[in-house]
Amino acid sequence: MSDEIRVLLADDEHLIRGALAALLALEEDLLVVCEAASGPEALAMARAHRPDVAVLDLQMPGADGVAVARALRAELPECTTMIVTGHGRPGHLKGALAAGVRGFLPKTVSAQRLAEIIRSVHAGNRYVDPDLAADAISAGDSPLTAREAELLELAADGAPVAEIAERAALAQGTVRNYLSAAAAKLGAENRHAAVRIAREHGWL
Q1: Which domain holds residue 80?
Q2: Exposed, middle or buried: residue 120 (CB in 10 Å: 0-12, 13-18, 19+)?
Q3: Domain count, the chain
Q4: Which of 3, 51, 172, 189 is the one with CA 20 to 30 A from 74?
Q5: How far, in Å, are 16, 112, 140, 151, 171 from residue 177 at the CA level?
Q6: What angle, rounded to 10 degrees, do the helices at 191-200 and 172-186 form?
């Protein structure tokens, strides 16, 4: 059918991805043309298959759904992107919208509703789950500067200050100052707690 909507499904949970593919296959106007289990694989599949709509899991190995959406907007602007997540945080929603994502919804939606939203965003509309939108409005913006967020991200895997400084091309004292400032803004006792708090709010 020439009016089929070609869909890319990207989710690192194979069972969920397979179930979604099977359910969407029941829709006459939707065609799942490719699947991916990571961010880089999603980009490679999108380049190869040119889907109309990419349904992306928020958290995937290699690159998250927002990063993939941002890359697709630059490379394949005709491909509409959607984020489906089990971890919707306010900062994630704002980042997704800034990346040009047209749909943002929890994994708790039914397959039928997902199909409806795919059709809607393909037609040029936007869909944001009302509960996630309300949470984002009430949470406010991140208090962190871009540099503070960058250094917290580098500290997330427990790297020592010396390694973070080398990776960020900054002096160790400067890194300590940024991390201390970030922890203070978040009311955290140390940088590890600051990472956890920032992630809970979707600010990293």
Answers
A1: 5-138
A2: middle
A3: 2
A4: 3
A5: 43, 50, 24, 11, 10
A6: 50
Q: Are residues 130 and 95 in the same domain?
A: yes
127 shares a domain with 103: yes
104: which residues sit within 8 A by CB, 6+ positions away? 82, 83, 85, 88, 93, 96, 97, 127, 128, 129, 132
pLDDT digits (tens, 9 = 90+) for 15-38: 989 999 999 999 999 999 999 999
CATH of the domain at 160: 1.10.10.10
Cβ-contact 157, 150 below 8 angstroms? no
Contacts of 151 (CB under 8 A, 6+ apart): 164, 168, 170, 175, 178, 179, 182
**Residues 33, 49: Cα–Cα separation, whole Å:** 7
Amino acid code (one letter) for 12: D
pLDDT in tens, 167-203: 999 999 999 999 999 999 888 989 999 998 888 777 7
Q: Is 27 left (phi over 0), alpha (psi -120 to 50) or beta?
A: beta
The two tokens of residue 63 are: 């690159």
**Structure-token match 């907007």, residue found:** 73
